[in-house]
Amino acid sequence: xxxxxxxxxxxxxxxxxxxxxxxxxxxxxxxxxxxxxxxxxxxxxxxxxxxxxxxxxxxxxxxxxxxxxxxxxxxxxxxxxxxxxxxxxxxxxxxxxxxxxx
Length: 102
Fold this sequence. Notes:
By secondary structure, this protein is an alpha+beta fold. It has one domain (3-99): 2-Layer Sandwich (YaeB-like fold). The chain is 35% helix and 26% strand. It is built from three helices and four strands. It has helices spanning 8-22, 26-41, 95-99; strands spanning 3-6, 62-67, 70-77, 80-88. Strands 1-4-3-2 form a four-stranded mixed beta sheet. A hairpin with a 2-residue loop joins strand 3 and strand 4. Helix 1 (8-22) packs antiparallel against helix 2.
């Protein structure tokens, strides 16, 4: 079993996305946050559940969980899973967003 650790930048990323959605629909924003956390909790039992982001292949250090409209990036170290970045799915991933946050 793994333990989940959210980095502060990843929590801020998710918060910014939820704040933007909440401008039009506060309930949808709450639902998104609940779905993201529920999806991430599955990593405790199945740490390899996420896919390797196409932009990062062949590097396998990071994986992603997709919970529309978000992509949640994480890396595993021993028995700890670090959530390092959250972004909207339509945006382009930049490697610096992962390395400066992990």
